[in-house]
Amino acid sequence: MKTNPIINIDELLQISNHSNLRIFDVRTGPNAKEDYQKKHLKNAVFVDLNTDLAEINDPKNGGRHPLPTFSNFIKTLGKLGIDKDSEVVIYDDKNGANAGARFWWMLKAVGHKNVRVLNGGLQSAENQNYPLNSGNENYPKTDYIADFNDWQLPQVWIDDVKSATENLDNLIVDVRESQRYQGITEPIDLVAGHIPNAENFPFSENLDENGLFKSPEILKEKYTEFFKNKDSKQIIFHCGSGVTACHSLLALDYAGFEIPNLYVGSWSEWSRNFDDV
Questions:
Q1: Beta strand spans in the chain (E)
Q2: FRET partner for 82 with CA separation of 20 to 30 A, picked from 200, 222, 259, 274?
Q3: Which H or E run contains 124?
Q4: Do both 104 and 10 map to the same domain?
Q5: Is residue 229 assigned to a domain?
Q6: Distance CA 136, CA 47 (A)
Q7: Structurally, how many domains does the chain consist of?
Q8: Is there a domain that residue 23 lies in?
Q9: How does pLDDT run across 216-251, given as a tens digit for each residue?
Q10: Is residue 108 domain-resident?
Q11: Catalytic sites, residue numbers
């Protein structure tokens, strides 16, 4: 039976005493670790986007947050105290729209079955009086034994995306906010704009006015119209550095779609390699 990729606070409370529950705080930003230490969900362990979920080198070759090697990520899972039977719940402070969804995608991509993202993230938990804690927490280390030796979810690389820009049978989806897509503003990368022929479907469209995921039925309707009957193999999702795009892949999984291709390098890699933006 497929695990629902989204978990609500009331559901988390119901399983909070499970011995194999592992909760992870994946917030980002310059003070992420310090903010975690001040306040986080009880038993939550901090996960660092830059060191645990990426191996950062030259953004021109892989973007700002390239995936770690498969074997290094498996070692990270053991260090974090995850084994194959763990019930993993992930949250961040941006409604799952940042590294929370990236960690979910990576766990799914190594074949982990029981992993969910907290609907509404930290804010929702606080609003509903979920128990909080401070300081640092950790779980006993494990030896994660994977069934595979490489990522199992579909990805594409910069040459694939270049080919896709020249074939209108493909759909390249940019999930950044509209002003970044249009090139009006670019707060992070060196160049503003978007990949040629990419279409914009901001990740924020996955959420309602309360910062919660829209229902699977609403998401299904919106994306079905947007995809125009294209097969998931013809669809590529990207963002700035392969993090926020995972929020839309999470929404698609929640709505019952096959998870399409992720371009991890995203705009941060593309914009450093091509002038046609």
A1: 6-7, 21-25, 40-41, 45-46, 87-91, 115-118, 132-133, 155-156, 171-174, 199-200, 235-238, 261-263
A2: 259
A3: helix 121-127
A4: yes
A5: yes
A6: 11
A7: 2
A8: yes
A9: 999 999 999 999 999 999 999 999 999 999 999 999
A10: yes
A11: 239
> 22 has which bridge partners?
88
Token pair, residue 112, equals 């982990």
pTM: 0.96
| pLDDT for residue 276 is more than 70 | no
Residue 188's domain comprises 155-270
Q: How far apart are CA 176 and CA 277, in angstroms?
A: 15
Q: Is 34 helix (H, G, I), strand (E, B) or coil?
A: helix
**CA-CA-CA-CA dihedral for 110, 222, 162, 179, to nearest 10:** -110
DSSP 259: P
Q: Is residue 94 scored above 90 in pLDDT?
A: no
Residue type, 219: L
Distance CA(249)–CA(246), nearest Å, equals 5
Residues 6+ apart with CB under 8 A from 64: 54, 56, 188, 189, 240, 241, 268
User: How far is it, in rounded angstroms, from Cα 253 to Cα 3?
Assistant: 10
- The closest alpha carbon to 242, from 156, 171, 183, 177, belongs to 156
Q: Which of 133, 168, 193 is the last residue of a domain?
A: 133
